[in-house]
């Protein structure tokens, strides 16, 4: 019997792994718990907690291995497929892809994912003291995850951990000590696995913290009267750190949301930015109205976009990764020593209260702070969009030193109205 006697379908079957693509971006965002195959050994693994990460199952030197490719919140489906293909090639050539990926994985695997893994391993075979087992991860969920949860373990510094610990160091002293100890355990594990090459950032922090009888210091804030001069200096630069810092100040948002901003989160006219729930401290989707000056920053960032990166403010060394938290902080402190990026939100809040007499609910909503009951919050989130846009237009005018041009309140109000209308007209 010759080959021609076989059915056509059988003669066309290829040996090797089947790599037909089965997943799509929408499914990756919404997939429920379990392991979901994309083909070619690539899987999306979703935990009961909702954490989702990529895993490649392949054969390395005759043995089947599972290799983590990072968080699905940070690594896109296309990037995961690209990494999987690259690592399969290394494995086929006799190399060990796991050695190569461990440090790279630390750049994408999140603190939350490592913490959940540590919790699972630490209490895997323990049946007693269930309350303690639950509290171990719950304290991290309550205090650490809102700030550290979505950050890559290799990018977290002592400043980030202080932002978790400092507010509760004296008010909830026993809890703060436990949280710090548990954070340190998570980073010990990350260092041991090779996800960090710079050591445990929590090591030695206990000895540098103030006595727990002292009051916490708030984030250092800049006097808003000095802001126009700072913005003038930043406007002379088009480097990514300066653009990101200007955009953070003009939107009055937390730096984490800005650093991870993606172009597909903005509308066509760059007049609104929809931040996904997982990138917000409130864990609720948030719509940000973009002022004229903030839009100018985005347009400049588009011109300097690197290799079609999906990120608005990507790392110069790796366009697929966001800039580090230290990028903006170091730049800010070269101009205003001691002031923090987070403290710029306090400068906005003080300005809104003292110079504009803006309603508290509008100013608080700009900062994405919860106002009132859940029902009131849902109502206000839509109702106050126009009011927030007008307030942010005024903030942009103040920050860029334009208030002197519109000293008369009526003239200023008319200009704010004109700019607001112009921004929405850009969609037509």
TrEMBL record:
GO terms for biological process: DNA integration; DNA recombination. It holds the Pfam family Arm-DNA-bind_3. GO terms for molecular function: DNA binding. Residues 1-20 are annotated as: Disordered. InterPro entries: DNA_brk_join_enz (IPR011010), Integrase-like_cat_sf (IPR013762), Integrase_catalytic (IPR002104), Integrase_DNA-bd_sf (IPR038488), Integrase_DNA_bind_dom (IPR025166), Integrase_recombinase_N (IPR010998), Phage_int_M (IPR053876), Phage_Integrase (IPR050808). PROSITE patterns: TYR_RECOMBINASE. SUPFAM superfamilies: DNA breaking-rejoining enzymes. Residues 217-392 form the Tyr recombinase domain. Keywords: DNA integration, DNA recombination, DNA-binding. Belongs to the 'phage' integrase family. This is Integrase. It comes from Litoreibacter albidus.
